[in-house]
Amino acid sequence: MRKSQYRPAGDDWNAVGEDDSDRLGAMMERALAEQLAERAREAERLYRAVLEEAPLTHDALHMLGVIRLGLGDFTDAERLIKRAMSLRPEYPAIAKNWALVRNAIEARDRRGVEIVSEHALPLLFASLATGDGRERPAKVSLEAGRNMHIVGPALDVAGDGAWLMQRLQALLPGPDRRFWNAVPCVNEGGTWQALDAKVIDTAFGRYPRDGLVVLAGVDCDTDAWLRETIDRVLIFMQPAAPSRYLERLRRIAADGARSLTLVFDSNAKARRFGGDHRILPPPIDAHEYPPVTAGRTRSRSAIVTIVTVGQDRRRVAVADDAEHLLALAKSAGRLELVDPGPLRHALGPEPSVVCVPGNGDPCRFICNADLYLHRIQPWWSEEPRAFFGAMHLGVPVLCHRKSIYAEYVGDHVDGWCYDDWADALSIVTALRADRPRLEAAGRAARAKASALFEPRALAISYDKVVHAWSLGQ
Q1: Which end of the chain is less congested by CB atoms within 10 angstroms, N or C?
Q2: Rg (Cα) of the chain, in Å, rounded?
Q3: What is the Cα–Cα distance from 458 to 109, expressed in whole angstroms?
Q4: What is the pLDDT of residue 409?
């Protein structure tokens, strides 16, 4: 009687007898079940056992490659998936996984490029200040009748540009401000409509032709329409790799022929670029966060619940802090990893760690935490929404002192700054024994965020910076 339903779609097991096929089929079914249950090591053991007996098993090669990719072994993942592709015509699932492997290897190989590019950013602005010898057009303000064009990215993989564009539409309304690639919204009837129906389409002649241009990040596609008639551009600097900053800023500035003004959400980030730039807090929408008592399920137990975001959405990278996160989890009593990515393989079996699938909204998990951990990342990939969302929810932030957002944390008042992992562990251990101190910091964090992101004050500060820039000030 047949014990397993699995059989390869091709001729992988033509040389294998029926009894052995039945046994190998059962192993493949168990391996897939273990993989779906995110028990990667057990699934890997079973796939490798199948390949020892039947080395041409396409599905085992493919799935083992996926597991190795998740564990950060890009070289082995490339070898396995490439071998699987040689045995079967390409199909969408394996093509997607092959692309993920190649992107991961490319990102790994570009680390040196990003380090060099990071050091080159201040030099870029020194060179742009001198220009290329061409005379810039005289500054003309909005009061001379010019329009202001606010442009968002047409394609936005990480979602940062779309979020910023939506916030700019709310913070910078006005008859002289035209929004391009605007974010759709839902009206009261539940149907989709655009806040401003303008979508840049150079083939049909729809694009900003003159006036002043505001960009929601360097990834806005400007190459086809940013002409000499536009002499000044203001850019709200969203996260991007240093090499991307170098490439896009140079092209937008036309090698110094066009004036650029950059707006950053922290002084620390602005200093990475050199020069004189504008600083505004990130445009956090206070209405997205519930009152401090809404939905709060915190207990007064000795356990401290820490929440952090596991996976970087902007780059393919292998986390190197699993050991430290595990130590924090054991010290605190509970660590919730939102969108854990490959970290689930290292931390998932630990009882004090809970892996939460990512859904683009980490704040709905943060609201029930005691502490938000802002993990160590390259400065250019740091994301502000979870950081400031935690503060607004009354959850103090445990932040590395070298973070570009550390300047927003009042150390030992509304949060904590740490120098290294040993320091972070010491802070968490002390807080577990001093819950009143933790709760007081949460109240202070909420008060700071409420003042920082009060809707009217935030709108005034954004409008003031943009208006001053439009007047050439």
Answers
A1: N
A2: 26
A3: 41
A4: 97
Q: Where are the beta strands (DSSP E) in 142-276?
A: 148-151, 177-180, 184-186, 192-194, 212-215, 232-236, 259-264
Does 280 share its domain with 309? no
The structure tokens listed for 214 are 């505001």
Write down the pLDDT at residue 271.
Answer: 94
CA distance 364 to 163: 17
User: Which helix (H) or strand (E) segment is 313 a member of?
Assistant: none
pLDDT at 427: 96
User: Would you mind telling me the total number of residues written for the chain in this entry?
Assistant: 473
| Amino acid residing at 459 | A
**192 and 67 housed in the same domain:** no
Number of domains in the chain: 3
3-state secondary structure of 339: coil
Range of the domain at 35: 18-109
CATH number at residue 61: 1.25.40.10
Q: Which residue has the tokens 């040993």?
A: 422
Q: Does residue 261 sit in the same domain as residue 301?
A: no
- Quote the tokens at residue 430: 């002390």
Write down which residue in 109, 140, 170 finishes a domain: 109
Residue 304 and residue 256 in one domain: no
Q: In this structure, are 52 and 133 located in the same domain?
A: no
Asked if 51 contacts 60 with a C-beta cutoff of 8 angstroms, the reply is yes
Distance CA 222, CA 458 (A): 28
Whether 194 and 259 share a structural domain: yes
Both structure tokens of 327: 């130590």
The answer to whether residues 90 and 128 belong to one domain is no
Look at residue 194 in the predicted model and tell me its pLDDT. 45
Phi, psi of 240, deg, nearest 5: -160, 160
Beta strand 353-356 pairing with 184-186: unpaired
pLDDT of 292 reads 55
Distance CA(145)–CA(393), nearest Å, equals 43
Please tell me the pTM assigned to this model: 0.75
State residue 293's pLDDT score.
Answer: 47
Q: Which residue stretches of the chain have pLDDT < 50?
A: 132-138, 143-145, 185-196, 293-297
